[in-house]
Amino acid sequence: MKKYFDARERLSLQRRREMQDRALCAMVKKGYRQSPRLKAFLDAHAIRPAAVRSREDLERLPVTSREMLVEMEMQHPPYAGLENPSAVIDRIFTSPGPVYEPHLSETDFLWARAFCAAGIGPGDIALNAFSYHLVAAGLTFHNGLRKVGATVVPSGTSSSQIQVQLIRDLKVTAYVGTPSFLMSIITQSREMGFNFRKDFQVKKACFAAEPLLPALRRTFEEEYGIDTYSMYGATEVGDVAYECPQKSGWHICEETIVEIVDPSTGKNVAPGELGEVVVTRLNDIFFLLRFGTGDLSRLLTGKCACGRTSYRLAGIAGRVGDAVKVRGLFIAPSQLKMLAAGFGDLPLQAVVCRQGHEDVLTLRIQKNNPSVGSKGWEDNFKKKFREICTVRIDEIQYVEAGTITADQKLIRDDRQW
Predict the structure, then answer these.
(1) What count of other Cβ atoms lies within 10 Å of the Cβ of residue 408?
(2) Structural domains of the chain, with CATH
(3) Is 141 helix (H, G, I), strand (E, B) or coil?
(4) Which residue from 172, 192, 362, 379 lies 20 to 30 Å from 125 (Cα-Cα)?
(5) Lowest mean pLDDT among 241-245, 303-307, 391-395
(6) How far apart are the first and last CA of the chain?
(7) How far apart are CA 59 and CA 52, in angstroms?
(8) 39, 22, 146: which is closest to 84 by C-alpha?
(9) Are the C-beta atoms of 278 and 215 separated by less than 8 Å?
């Protein structure tokens, strides 16, 4: 399995693009024949299937949000008419809405690529703490673990006390679940009289469905000796991206075409700019084109030291509704939280206003120590801000302690349109 992934993950960008474009063409043509709904959708936008030859052609189609998909499935149950009626569907999952999801074939490599990158494989005993009931998470992660040769303990959402017992008795070496639940298990083990690092053998953890905060990652890795990895996906499109050992962004899976778009226009933004993550999963079962996740991220196009050649996502910066556009670029509260954490949880607030026909971005910063506001400090702050948020600061206002409170918005939009 590792050799298979190595061969595909190290393809040249041109070769990968050619393969994905061919798969996209085949998907659109088959969907046009098999799905009346997709046929009507393309016809309504005056797009012939043969005209979709590359990912750039997808921009001619609107983005389908989750809310739109729910409405479409209500109108044409159960799959909005986007399914291949002749396909053999292994399982049907559901998520709130409801949204019904025909499960991809058992031959699909859902999540296996992420587990392989995390070093999980034969010889590992993996505790899968995701639910196996109705939702896709438990079984799809389970299948990915089996694809890489790991033995799976399907613990699901059992209590933390039971999870501790399973980890101890079965000598579990890897954990798959949310970071908060792993911390609950560690806390429970301590209450039961165990030393998690010394008494147990968990050395790897793959997290999804919840952000892995930097402080929590440090705790897992430094205090408990657990090598941690983040994975990113959505129930509607499966796995999308995953971390490699370099942990410098999430590599985009081969089976997905990911666009970063302006939520207001659906058009792709430039690499490095913040936008909505829009996913088209290449398959011949469910013809969902340009699914809008509602998540905000940036595309990293530089080379990764691990040798994988795919582009990467720079993590999730927040949700579409939380972001504010400044001079054509989005900034999100989570970006400001990341910035503040890098400066000792510095209290700050971004304020956007208009002067004439231009946006003006002001950063209000609370002087919580003597170094804040010095020339060297300010230069470093502006540099870090540009790296994280991409947009330029127009003005910095330093305010006294207590001025910026926790109940204030991190981004205040004072523009009058």
Answers:
(1) 11
(2) 2-103+236-321 (3.40.50.12780), 112-233 (3.40.50.12780), 323-413 (3.30.300.30)
(3) helix
(4) 192
(5) 391-395
(6) 55
(7) 10
(8) 39
(9) no
